[in-house]
Amino acid sequence: MKPSVIFAAAAFGWLTACPSLAQEQKEPEKIPFEGGIFTITETKELDKVLAYDGKELARNYVAFYQRTVDLNGTKVAIFDVGGGGNACGPAAVLAWKTEAGIQSTIVGADECGTPPAAATGDALYFVPYLRPGATAPVRMWSPENGLKVAGELSFVPQPGTGWADVKLEGLTYTTDFFANAELYAAAKALLGNDLENVALGLSVSGGPDTTPSGLLFASGCVPHACGSADAFIGVDVANKRLYFAQQGDLPAPKTWPGLDEWPAELKYGMTKALVKQ
Q1: Which residues pair with 242 in a beta bridge?
Q2: Which of 5, 126, 207, 225 is least buried, going by the fewest C-beta atoms within 10 A?
Q3: pTM for this one?
Q4: In the sheet that 124-126 helps form, which strands lie side by side, from edge to edge?
């Protein structure tokens, strides 16, 4: 036997004897359900495949079991399945069993995240996360009636809050600015129909910061599209003024108000965050 063949054979035997050093296929996760078993199996491409007794129900980069609920005598297993990524939650895969076998449906497959289902005695309700300026349907699902619209929800700030309540230590996310009633009213007056798009451009953010003189500011981007419509917010609490900017089709970002009205500190921060060098 040639030396190279001997070395290869020895190396193979060494790796086989040491599983921690060889690449292993992960064992499927197993969830017993109504006389059968759900499995979540990772493929070589790192996708996760959700199946029931070998029947594939869904696959994506992320898949995990959430819980099982009882809806008027029918057990429904809830799974989260999605592509992962910034600020986009997974879709909900619902599975239940009938005399015809396992049944499944997906809620929010084409959306940027589906809110966790809230269960009542006979239905699941999906209450949307709302961006400032947005309105969206509240949906309900049951095994008998499928997915239907239960009502409509609109974003509103916290009643009774004002400029005096805006403090850096109370802001975890950039969009927390819009929870303030007086600030939100000022943003609506300044941005008009652009409010929802600008808020979307602030969705993915590291959180607000402050300038040396005490002005608050933050920048962010659209989920899964950073660099395309990034946005900026500046807040002058003392003078009750807001400043917004967002990338668009032109080289320079669009600003509210005009850039000549911006304080120098905020103009510098916005330019650094949004203007491509």
Answers
A1: 235
A2: 5
A3: 0.74
A4: 118-119, 124-126, 135-142, 146-154
